[in-house]
Amino acid sequence: MRHQLTGNAGLYHVARELSRRGWHVMPTVRNARGADLYAASDDEATVLPIQSKALSKRDPVPLGGSLDALRSPWWIVTIRANTAAPTCYVLTLDEVKALAHRGVSPATGAVSFWLQPKSYAQPKYEEAWHRLGEPGGASCR
Prior knowledge:
By secondary structure, this protein is an alpha+beta fold. Helix content is about 20%, strand content about 30%.
C-alpha cells in the first residue's frame, strides 16, 4: 500500500478513536507544518493539536533533521495502520524529543532523528487515550 494511504488510514483511525471518546476532531491540510489534526471539547475550552504518524508495521518513526522543528504537544503513532487492527501509542512532545534517536550519515554528515520501535511501543503509551484528558473536564495540555 502506498505511503500516503497508510498515513491517511492512520490519521482517520486516530480521528475515529478520538471521536468515540467525545472529542470533536478536525484534520488539517495534509503536508502542512504542525498538527495533523485538532481535537476540541464541546465548548472549545480545550483544543489539542496532535501529530499523527502512521506506519504499516512496527518500524522507526522519522522525525526529520531537527528536534527543534517539532511542534505539536501530542503525538500518536499508529502501527499496522492499514489493517483491521491498528495499534496506537500516545506520547507528549517532550517524550518524543527525549526518546528520539540521533543518527549521522557517514556519506554526507547529515543529522536525522527518529523514534525506535522499542522507544514508542511501550505498554505505558499503548492505547493510552486517557493521557489526553477528558473532553468535558480538565485535560493535559
